[in-house]
Structures are given as C-alpha cells and as structure tokens.
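Bug #77: duplicate submission created two jobs. Keeping one. Sequence:
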Amino acid sequence: MALDITAAYARRAVEYAEQLGSMTSVHPADLQLVTGWAERLDGPVIDAGCGPGHWTGYLAERGVNVRGVDLVPSFIDHARRAYPKGFFAVGDLGALPETAGTVAGVLAWYSLIHHKPGSLRGAHAEFARVLRPGGELLLGFFEGPAVAQFDHAVATAYFWPVDALNDELRAAHFDIIETHTRTGPGHRPHGAILARVCAPEDAVVPR
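Kept job's structure:
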C-alpha cells in the first residue's frame, strides 16, 4: 500500500505543491495551533509526512529544531529548493531513523489519512518509540461520524471520529491532552488531536 500511495503522490507532486505547498493554504486556526504547540516544545520536532515541506520550512524560520520526513522523493526535492533553512530527508513513517526516546514532538498533519484502519497503530507506535517521555504528538485528520473511506483527490483516504482515533492513540501508549474539530463551507470536516506519550504501564488499552 505504501508504494501505491507514494507513486500516486509522486505523479501529482508538482500540482500538489502548487496548490497546497505553501502557508497561504493553511487555515488560521491550524496555524495558531501548530505554531503554539511547536514553539513551546524544548527539543527536536519531526514533521512526519512533510509533503512539499511548508510546515517544516515555516517552523524552521521561527527557530524550531524541526526535520521534515516524507516517503516521496519529489516532495523532498521540492522542499529542499523551496525552504533552504529546513532539513529534509526521504524516510518511512513506519521506520523513522531517530533513536528511541530522543524527540520532543511529532507533527503528523494529514500524513496518516491514507492508512487503512488496521495499520494505524503501527505508525502511532513508531511515533511513541521516537518520542521521549512526555513528548507530544499533534495529529491532523479528516473527522467524521464513523470510520469510513472516501475518494481523496490522490488516493483513498479515511474519515475518523475523534473518539475512535483517541482509542487508537491510547492503544499506542498516548494520553490525550486536547482535541479540536472544525467544519466550513466547501471543506471536509477537520480534526486535530494533541497527545502525550506515556509509559507503557500507564497506558489505557481500549477493550
């Protein structure tokens, strides 16, 4: 599946970067949420699934120690040209190169929307592995009343109810800090979850 998604994005990388690869396409509420979160973290941040690199570039300009990672080489090539102050690398979100327990924050902003429901916990577990104790994950996603697939412009994606995604995160040893939802004309419903990694023995696994 990862190879199919990577190929689908590679085919449309130029179009995607032109339409969504700058901060002008970001909703003001998202800008405030992500900026405030990243700037209060004390340590390195991973922009997991950075795409064309606009979030990484923006945060780097603001002094955040951030690294963008994406599986699509053409996105990384674009990001390096467009945002020279950022650090970017081709990488798999399911096998990040970071040493366990060394990262202060992971931004996964719409980077898991194509994961089938049964494969999400692997990605969440990898985020939990690289985060240090108390490290935080900020996740952006398409929100809906039930877990359901839909025809995204690039490849099949999924809606998630906030409560169901919270349960997935708890199963990967995260505590939920806060959640946000937003709807607007002409846009699919948006959700965001801020979660903190906890010790495995403290995690609550849903039944």
